[in-house]
Specification:
alpha+beta, eight-stranded parallel beta barrel, about 20% helix, globular, about 850 residues, ten-stranded mixed β-sheet
Length: about 850
Amino acid sequence: MATHSTRRAVLLLTLALSLFLLATLARVNGDLRHLVSRSLATTRTALASMKSSSVLHSPKGNYAAVSETAAMPNAMRIGLNMDAQSQYDTRAYLMNYLDNPGFEQGIVGHVIVVGPNPSSSSFTDKNDNYDAVGTGFWNGVTASVRSGISAGTSFPIASYAAGGTYSCKCPSLAAGDLIAIKTSNPSLGYVSGHTLPGNWVINNSDSGVMLSTAQHYAGTSSVLFDIHDGGGHSIEFGMDSSGASVGTCSKDSVTLCQNSADCGIGTCNKAPTYAFHPVTGPMSMSLYALASDTAGTPTIKLTLSRSDSSWRSFSHSFDLTPDGAWHQYSYEFIGSDTSKDTGMLIFAIDAQNGAASADAKIYVDNAFLGPATGAAGGFRKEVLTTLKALNPGTLRYMIPQTLTQSDDYFEGNDYEKGPSNDYSVGANFTWYFSLKDLYAMAGAIGANPWVSIPDVFSDADTNSFAANLCTAFSNNRFSRAFVEQSNEDWVSGSHTAGGSETVQYGQLANRNFGLINTYMTSKCAGYAGDVYFVVNGQEANGGVLANTSAQIPADNPHYGGDIADYVPSANEQSAKQTLEQYAALGFNNSLNQFTSGIESNPFTDTVPGNIGNLCGGKPSGCRQFLAIYENGSSNQCGTATPVEAYEMSAGWMAAGFNGQNWILGFSAGSNGINSGTLSPMLAQNTFNFAQLDYTTSGAGCPSGHGTTSALWGVVHDLDSAFGAPFPHIRPIGWAMALANRAITGAYYPMDTSNLTGVYGAAFKSGNNWSALLSNSNNRGVTIEIIFPAGKLPSVGETILYSRTIADNNENSNSVKIGPLAGGITTAGQKVSVALPPLSLVALEQ
């Protein structure tokens, strides 16, 4: 998503200068020569400060010991960012392939930061430069004060002048106060003769097609076809136009390639290897239509076509009932995609009257195209199957453009919510699925929701959200929920309250959290104690978390902050290194952010530092938690080619170093400046569900070199009809699935200080023990683990490759979960296990 690229670019650009200076001093002849010259064995002592005092220290030798005392009850399985669906690529999540299917009007939201010297009649906006709207745009809109002495007060805007001057009968305001405004009308996202909100295209520059509130089957608007001229009028929605930069060879589905020359024999096949939005099996296309003042024979024709396909198109025409009422028109068919049908998919709606007739109109609403059956929340069955395999503990709903919405859009029925935008009326208004959908899917897979709520919410929006959360708990049997105030609010933007106003952001968050807690305590008290409230932090900028966490209760363990502990791109990935060197780089980059002595860059020891920033940096009596809103692979910086970058991010090795990152996330939360007070990481969410690849801009890298890689997307695609056995989960995704088999019950710290490059976490459910272990060494390590009383694990599993560590699942299933060679042996309360090189291992019952 564009916002992910910009926000990480902001972070890396901020760090670039310091990183460059450090690199100049520390590196000789390239990043990885320093890495290779030093064994991972030297890093073990650097973690001595990370050991909790509650852990039983191991006797000398290859022993690890599990603590007698649980550090966290009910440990959360590794979670997942669902991110947004896409009409263009592999993120084909919904059974309805059409965005904005209810043809609802767009919405714009903005956070005002009050400028100097506000008065009772006017104020200025320091944040206006992010809000590219014209004079008069906000006239008459109701504003809601979100921080300061008048927080909670609503008032109408009398006038707005471009540049950020507002007039009003204003409440008492001070410089820096935050005010939320949002508006919705049929003109937003509509460009006459060009587009309708939600990326629908108006064909033939037709000014007779527009959004209308005069009629609607559901919601507040529909699309109007003015057919008085007797001619045809049409709109269309396009899909499957994107592709990947790296593929696999036609003669070897595991060898990565950027072009056919990389293959030697055969060709380089890049995604879409198979259709992103498949037209297979029982399919349906339908809509509701109303014919008004028609004298001829009003008709609607639905056409579905795929370019260069074996089946060309499906179409069906309907004669409409001309009675001025809404009727549904539906056509069922059997899809005919083959494995080679990967061209662009187009769905078209054509309306006509057959003859000229003054005032003749056809209104269309609630359109559908997709498989005849789906899963919970309107998702495709393939989404449900894949998520069940991953078994995440949390599903995070964070889609940046949804953070500009009112709650009726944020949580509304998909047919009754429109697209949104936060910065420019002329920009695309993109539509995304509702939080309501995610609640249903989370319930279906036994996950808990993590929700990022908009800063533009008013008190009424916040109370509406709380009411819906009560219902979601009841309907889906969640054990807990996380409510995060917005997303990465330290990045300035039109809909963000943070940027340079992190204190006011914290005040806004605390107010909204209080409203939610008060409502739920009153209306659904049984669930109120299961909600955890989260403010934003920034991993390499501790001042953000210090400011935001100081504004929320310090002595309440249901309040905390979050950071993103991606495996950093510093040190960078250089070209022409071995796979073993790339694996070592991944393990080191992960470890570096949890301790010192590994690398020297701005990410060194940042996680313990951020723990120390909680409660405003005042550890005494602090009971706040730290959680991870996103992790996985970070920006791909360095001179590595896209194929080499894919080997690190999409290859087998990614399972090992991301697994280590999750293990360290468990252990790090109980250490640092607040050791003995804080709980471990309450939740960790990997980014994201499905995505092909992402190109890191060189401008965002200290070296000036960025490349394309499979940074995000634990799933390659959702195709279940063709290719390798379904589901198509990448190694990092299988690592998540493996970890989540071991994470059950309470978390117990594991002391591995006698072992070089080995880290572990133990869990106990009832009387049953399980454990998760990582080995960053380029050799196997046999260890013994001493467990306290309880039933020991008897099964060992790991992530297997079929041929070599170069294996991947881009167009195969060569990487999978399988039995640990040699299994495990037990004696008394000791478990003996051989950890493969560069591996993640789960010990289970």
